[in-house]
Amino acid sequence: MTTPVTTPDEFIERWRTPPNLRVSNALTATSFTFPPALDVLDAVRQDDEVRFTILGDEDWSVRMDRTAAFRTAPIEEVATWPFRLVHFNLTRFYDSVLSGFQEQVMIPWRTQMSSWGFTWQRCAPLLFISTSGASSTYHNDNSHGLVWQIEGAKTFHSYKNPDQHLTAEAAVVGETTAEEPPEHDPADRQSVRMGPGDRLWSHALTPHWVTTESPLAMSVTLSHGGLCHQGRFADRELALRAYWDQHPDEAWKLDLRNVRY
Ligand SMILES: [Fe+2]
């Protein structure tokens, strides 16, 4: 599988071009300890800005009932339902369940990236929680993601050579999004299994999908919009900038993530 990037020089050399990279903990060390995923889920599910989708083969009426009860049902029971959940504004929890995240994760990461010569327009954490049987959609994001698996396991699927499957221009206009990936040769796929503590660099505008490999899985993606190293964007991001130059009213509308996670 992919050899992890272990030094800043190597990261600087490889951040710009697919395929995705495992990133060693040596580059992403943090003193922050997450609360258990179940506790995070319990806090986040009650927030107005949470988004979740109940999945599974049950009858539609069961899924409707679960959707209605998602915020209030006993948390241990909710954790047995197939679902995926995202939250795009974790600052809402910096004074509660994610106390210390700003000081121990975001500030050190931004300081480190800055010291390596990076600039960006947006850098924010996104939270993903899912249960057994739940997959993300097939999509691409406008941002680069440092995907950080916290609890449980997921597999992050993308392509060894995204250009063979989706041009940067097609990614920019969102031709990707679907519930499932299209038919493809499994040999073209890059599937990275991620356990607790694992990090992966996911390139902007590359199609991907994520499958849950444990009963409950939680990850956080540090999302980077408009990332540059010494003034240079990533190869695929140039297509986004060219598109926004021609369609300024659409710039930043899908800023950090795909609206369909
Ligand atoms: Fe994504």
UniProtKB/TrEMBL annotation:
- UniProt-listed InterPro entries: JmjC_dom (IPR003347)
PROSITE patterns on file: JMJC (PS51184)
Q: Where is the JmjC domain?
A: 79-239
**Which protein are we looking at?**
JmjC domain-containing protein
Q: Which organism is it from?
A: Streptomyces griseochromogenes
